[in-house]
Amino acid sequence: MSRVLVIALCAVIAACTNVQQVTDETRVRDVIDAQNQELVECWNGGEYECVAAAFSEEGWQMMPNAQAQAGTEAIQRFWQQAFGWGQWEVSLETSLLEQSGPVAIERGKYTIRFAADAAAPPNRPSSQDRGNYVTHWRLDSDGRWRIAAQALVSEVPARVIPAPPGT
């Protein structure tokens, strides 16, 4: 075997061993729980760059009553604007985490409280929301678990606005 082939084979074996260590089910749960705690602290502290860093470069975030944000730059811009509207308080509670190799799926409950300030647009009044979420985690090439997609689905009934008379 050529020296290059031996080195390449060793690198592949080392990479697979490293992924195995990082994907141990108990360890993955601990890592994702810690990253969720960090994400919640970022949301509650108004740190938009920190929120975006939890996502993979092409990650998607789908928040209730908002358009989906695709990619870390869009996620960062969304939260930079949203944090300028007032104070956010978010909580996440994991109900289930299933993991297979470099992919994990998390399901849980969330709450969001938003206290609007004078800078908030009229369509963003103070509010409270609760619901369920699904997060697709992926082990990135740098060995860090990042969010590939996250969807928060509200349990709060939508406010029905009556149609104007005569319509």
Structure explained in plain terms:
- Strand 3 (86-100) and strand 4 (103-116) form a beta hairpin.
- The chain has four helices and six strands; from the N terminus they run H-H-H-E-E-H-E-E-E-E.
- The model is unreliable at 1-21 (pLDDT under 50).
- The longest helix has 21 residues, at 25-45.
- Strands 2-1-6-5-4-3 form a six-stranded mixed sheet.
- The protein has one domain: Nuclear Transport Factor 2, Chain: A (Roll), CATH 3.10.450.
- It is of the alpha+beta class and 167 residues long.
- It is 35% helix and 37% strand.
Task: Sum up the structure in keywords.
alpha+beta; Nuclear Transport Factor 2, Chain: A; 6-stranded mixed β-sheet; 4 helices; globular; disordered N terminus
Write the topology of this structure.
Blueprint: H1 3-22, H2 25-45, H3 48-53, E1 55-62, E2 69-70, H4 72-83, E3 86-100, E4 103-116, E5 127-139, E6 145-154
Major beta-sheet overview: 6 strands, mixed
Distance between the termini: 80 Å
CA gyration radius, whole angstroms: 20 Å
Strand-pairing-aware structural class: alpha+beta
Question: What form results from the Cα inertia axes?
Answer: globular
User: What share of the residues lie within helices?
Assistant: 25-40%
If helices are DSSP runs of H or I spanning 4 or more residues, what is the number of helices? 4
Q: How many β-strand runs? A: 6
Q: What's the number of structural domains? A: 1
CATH architecture: Roll
* CATH topology grouping: Nuclear Transport Factor 2, Chain: A
Nearest-integer average pLDDT: 87
